[in-house]
Design goal:
The structure is a homohexamer. By secondary structure, the first copy, chain A, is an alpha/beta fold. Chain A has one domain: 3-Layer(aba) Sandwich (Arginase, Chain A), CATH 3.40.800.10. Chain A is 30% helix and 20% strand. Chain A is built from nine helices and ten strands. In chain A, the strands form two sheets. Chain A has an eight-stranded parallel beta sheet, sandwiched between helices. In chain A, strands 2-3 form a two-stranded antiparallel sheet. In chain A, helix 4 links the parallel strand 6 and strand 7. In chain A, helix 1 crosses helix 9 and helix 8 runs parallel beside helix 9. The longest helix of chain A has 18 residues. Chain A is globular, with a radius of gyration of 18 Å. Chains in contact: A-B, A-D, A-E, A-F, B-C, B-D, B-E, C-D, C-E, C-F, D-F, E-F. At the A-B interface, helix 1, strand 4 and helix 2 of A face helix 1, strand 4 and helix 2 of B.
Chain lengths: 305, 305, 305, 305, 305, 305
């Protein structure tokens, strides 16, 4: 009695997967959790609307039981992988400590249910409470695709904005080892943050380096580790994803960004993934949400092998 | 672990009600069913996106167990009413006979589950297959709020467009008695449709009449009947709801339209309600979806008493 | 082989009328001429796009040979009236004297072809060269629906902006008698223009007066005269027509504005009509062009009787 | 060498007044201070962009030394009134206590410089720290034009959102006497807030009451008091001001709202005014900012007498 | 008396060519026919508006009698080529068999009038009835620029959607030989369609192959054949043409797509061209229509030699 | 008491520099002057809004006293450079001779105050009156980044449109030597203009040449000269800057355009820079203004060394 062929039928969940709140018991291979929080953005807000916008756009990529057929390899992708939409964490608005507490709690719960937890922001500040949920791991590596360092100790009188998630994380997550940042660019880098990242031995790779030597960049990615990938939408060139708070020209192409993600996933154990800083309201034509949904779909397919 | 205070957290369902597909067994007081079909629109499409847009906007009006507190009467509304989001009927795109078959089937199923079925279009053509699901009733009255008659035998080479739902319904639904249309206006009325409606004894009330004598209009509404209300978004003045295929100036105010709905609901037995022709893509500021969600909320509260 | 039922089929001409350039010989009852000139706007441009936008929107009101059936009077309107789209005058961009020369020349030509010439701007500056084409009339009255006087001698270093068309016209059109302005409002009136209009004996009627006593306003309109109506889109309340350079709150409702137009047309000989200052680009939902097309349609029907 | 006739020339300041930061010494009759803070909005953000949008739009109403000529009274308004743009308070983003401290400090400074301080939000939460700057007054009355009470003790885990400014203010501002709220409506009133306001003796006037008896409403306004007016943009009907986080149908017309403001200003001593909750990004046609600028202009003119 | 230098003067026809309906007798070198039909789109509608949007945008490329001067080759292009706008086929809305009958009939008529018929969609389903008008040819080759195969036997309960035009065409057009598809990509290929295309011996070239070896791709295009080119707007990267129902990242650059078109035109006999799936409403900045008009212009110039 | 960390606080001036009108005495290293004039655009207007839009967007790049830290070179840029916002020249609307007189006068004044005058248009016609302010130089070279020649003697009946600034400049500026144009493309070049530029010995470099051999292009730029750079926004590919009147596909990447600018600045003495033809209203997502502000920032940093 229900039919699922058209992309736009609802209610919209991630990839038309069943919605199962974390208050109920369930297990799955992949769980997607929305984090509609953008109160930590210092410029153009709107990422709070991303989880629902990505749910709607992802209807185009609902895999169905047979998965997708891949033209290039003539194989099926995502076949039989069990996905669940775990809903959203409700932010406590101004009270960021409480919001972050809720996020950490939900992320821990999600980790207990699925092999691959996927977090859909929200602004980049949410990565900090998400990473706190990984404090039981002895070793955790991060690959961050981002135009910006997001490693400031403080900005604009606060230590918890979307400029600081990784700075806070290295303080609170004992197993957090190497952070590899790919796609850096822009006129204004926080020098204190830059120095701190250098001092801690982070691998910092600019977008220019990606353009000039993608192969070399792929070589510098972690291998054989437990890796969490944090994908900031602004790592992509704004021509392909304009809907983000702080777009920066000279970004990565979709192909380049996916090469970094694919290489990372293939040669490591992926323990988590987030997509943040996508603001659908800043792209009235709707392309950004479609690109974001496509990206999530491809990450899942890549992870499922 | 989950919090539901903010309007925009997802996955979006109608009024944050649980989603229960019609393939599962359940009973509730109110069920809302999306009909994302706008292939019968002859002008500006987009009503296919209305069910999901209204789900998102209706997050503002999620009642919670205690309902809403009404400032004017100092009472609680919708307290304890059990709502279900029954999902969408998936249209068969070009094959309208098949789409209409699916809609009738789903509408029948919904009627069997709930006291008040609410249908969220989609263009106005969907009202015809919905009404077919009421063919067991001995008597059914319709109150249609609409700028247009929608009673054409044929338009533009088809008999099933959004100009003809009530013409088809009177042919196929034996118990269908009086149709009362409120809000008519515009330069171009189909004279054949007008004559046919007059011949069948329909009550035709123009928007001008509503403006000049709302009280008299309320007097002419059915009383003590089983009534189905079909609410075409274009009955409202486009200043308050611009997101519709064929806006017509000099429309009803929200207050006037709600007066007609309220009076109808109060003095009859409401057996169904639809909201159609809302095209969210034609209102980039988002007001239309918010007004539509508010309207649905108020209808529910009015019905629940 | 060609079908004309759907509103959006092209090429778009005014009301799907045949396009006949003024370089060819023809006669008709009504001719519509586009004046896509907005270089005289001092604030938000875009009226240059109005003629084509109104052509597209007017497809909804293509009368066909039988005209439209009017629900309220149960009669047909515009039946058999012969309309022609006379194309656009190509502006000479910066060289306004040349543009105005072309407009006057085209307006004279159009007057020689049709009973009712209709001019579709463009900004309000075009009314001046249009009125120059009426310099053969011994007596000409003007009814101007407008939020602003547009009677400035000079503004911002120029005497030919959209603030001055009527000031220039009274200098150059010898038969121009009374000017009746309806709908005035706004914080900033040019005192010199106001005094000059008072001195010349113009009838100045504010929007507040229309709201408070529409009947009295209708009494003050000219009777038994040759009248040219100049309709500035900003006379309407911006809630119903937001697409205009300089919207002013507290405007006329569509009903009020049409009452003024209808009364004027009924009790006088209409020798010309213009619709100006509609900027479709300032209304992304498209309502303004639809309202403008509806207004033109109703003026034609009203004139045809 | 500089010319100021066109509305859109920059840099944009409020009414093209000189920008004088509060760090410098100066005195004026009116000072306008921007409060670009919307981190306390629980729904659709964007009010952070209002101060600059209103600066741009207010270029249309730059009075010049001679003021504006008023058509209706044939007098000049705002003639010779000395205005200053005092700039913006820079918010501390997430750290609302610090933001509020800065706002209170700036509001105190502004009060020391001008006869009429005008505050341009920002969301409604900013009214709380502004009112703290009036804690030296023995008696202060408030007239709040608003669709919502904004008197919640707590909402969504925080006590400082845009739902609570007046609740916090009555706790911290000892001289704060009567609060008169005009324009209340909407389905969801916080019952605890409603009861608390009733208990404290607030005057609560619904939008329906305004529609039904404006004269009676004007009678209930304070007289002969020191009054602060807080104007929430959502008191207006969304047809005229759609750019606001939480629009509510059945709002006040511009004329009704200005009648309330004018009466309040005329019969009291106005000690402050704020305009909040205008989100220009939610109105792509730009009307909302123009209406907001017009409103500010009219308040100034009304105050100046 | 009429001037044609500015791009935006109307009425808009393709390249400001004369409009000559197919009901009248005429001959020309090139005829452009609009097919404003998008009822077969399963995702985001709007291509019905493309013919008129492309007429407006193509005003920028009106060649005039002398054609355009080409900077690179220092020669004139399109000099003296006689173009005609043949108008639109009016769709029968829901009744696709009737719509397709009209399209085939009109396409046959156009082929009888011109050397190069150009079809402007509409969604991709229209290519099927267009190709039926070529059933007299003994041999017909197709070059399809497209992100998707569009060779499904059935999708979503219909065999006539925009996913199936070429599947239907190979059934009904006896002379249809090789189909070469360039630009394929995306996650979800219909495996049945893929296998059927392989079995029939189609040449399938991915976008990745174009990026990696454009020269090799050009080698694989047909030579010395009668060729029909079907250009789906989504073959282009969405950064350059975002206004399309189903954008896919990693698309062809304009330069790459034109290289394929140019090579095809140069070494074959072009018997028809269509541009489909451009949805102007999905690109509020208007770039997509401008790119589409430019593309059509370049195809004409390329064909004219 | 005032804080300047957030990008969107106002009043918006270029890079949050102090506003100092040219009527006051001051000296600085860099002065930015707005020229909000777009009455010479023959297609899509809106560049009149660019100066204020760029002021708002440039808040993201406010350097502060310490300048920006550059990640790639690990140095500080723009450290201690004294910037001033010199305001806008108020255009005389239709009276272009007067507007141009004002622009020349202001440009002369600015040259007397600063080392590097930066002009922010406005359409490209403004470059002519700006260049007149350099008529005291014995030798002046121009590097023009542009999709179009802008060297027409006349277009559409005027000699002063945005197609002619350099033609007029070579007539009136005696020291004007070589003009190097980079980025040419598009279907329609004015042959008379092309021949005139060739005859005068201009260096004309197409966008294709830049793509094929950027190094060779950099070799052809002037060396050791006094150079004025005129940057037309349409030189960039519209995927990265869609907000411009006449976008042309196959444009320069940001990286390519900056390479040309950087090389020019490095090996010459930069005496002036303009950015023109950016129309923010044509890019509702706001990317174009952000890219324009970034470009200006980078030019300043590059010039400061």
């Amino acid at each position: 009695m229900r039919y699922t062929e058209l992309a736009f039928t609802g209610p919209a969940t991630f990839f038309k997967a069943p919605y199962r709140p974390l208050t109920e018991p369930w297990q799955a291979e992949v769980g997607l959790l929305g984090l509609p929080y953008d109160f930590a953005v210092g410029y153009r807000p709107g990422a709070r609307f991303a989880p629902n916008a990505l749910r709607e756009a992802s209807g185009r990529y609902a895999p169905g039981p047979e998965g997708w057929f891949d033209l290039e390899t003539e194989t099926y992708r995502l076949q039989g992988v069990h996905l669940v939409d775990a809903g959203d964490v409700d932010p406590a608005q101004l009270e960021y400590h409480e919001t972050f507490r809720r996020i950490t709690e939900a992320a821990r719960a999600l980790r207990g249910r699925v092999k691959l937890p996927v977090f859909v922001g929200g602004d980049h500040s949410v990565t900090y409470p998400v990473l706190r949920a990984y404090d039981d791991l002895e070793e955790l590596h991060i690959v961050q695709l981002d135009a910006h360092l997001d490693f400031s100790d403080s900005r604009n009188a606060t230590r918890f904005s979307n400029s600081s998630p990784f700075r806070r994380a290295v303080e609170d997550v004992p197993g957090l080892k190497q952070i590899t940042v790919v796609g850096l660019r822009g006129l204004r880098t926080n020098p204190e943050a830059y120095q701190a990242a250098k001092n801690r031995g982070h691998t910092l790779i600019t977008a220019r380096t990606v353009r000039e030597n993608l192969h070399g960049v792929l070589e510098r990615l972690p291998k054989g580790q437990r890796v969490y990938i944090s994908f900031d939408a602004d790592v992509l060139d704004p021509s392909i994803l304009p809907g983000t708070s702080s777009p920066e020209v000279e970004g990565l192409s979709y192909t380049q960004a996916m090469a970094v993600v694919r290489q990372t996933v293939t040669q490591n154990q992926l323990v988590g993934f987030d997509l943040v800083e996508l603001a659908p309201n800043l792209d009235p034509g709707g392309l950004s949400a479609l690109v974001g949904a496509r990206l999530l779909a491809e990450v899942l397919a890549c992870w499922a092998g």
